[in-house]
Design a protein that fits this description.
It is a single chain. 9% of the residues lie in helices and 31% in strands. It is mainly beta and 70 residues long. The longest helix is centred in the first third of the chain and has 6 residues, at 5-10. It is globular. The mean pLDDT is 88.
Length: 70
């Protein structure tokens, strides 16, 4: 079954900020696979929605991201 463009846009967004990366058992930080400005697709029930300066923003873990749009 093909997903329409509207459906994809509902679960897609642009990365506006990233954290330092996951803390590994070794004490080092993991390398992130996304960067500010990347467009990503995430799962329907992923993340937490908040409002920042009147804009709706979704906070996601990197593991919630299904794909990076290239």
């Amino acid at each position: 079954q093909r997903i329409g463009d509207t459906e994809i846009r509902r679960f897609a967004g642009k990365v506006v900020a990233v954290g330092p990366g996951k803390l590994l058992d070794s004490g080092d930080r993991g390398t992130l696979s996304v960067a500010v400005g990347d467009e990503v697709i995430y799962g329907k029930y992923s993340g937490t929605e908040i409002e920042v300066d009147g804009n709706e923003v979704k906070i996601l873990r990197e593991s919630d991201i299904l794909a990076k749009v290239i």
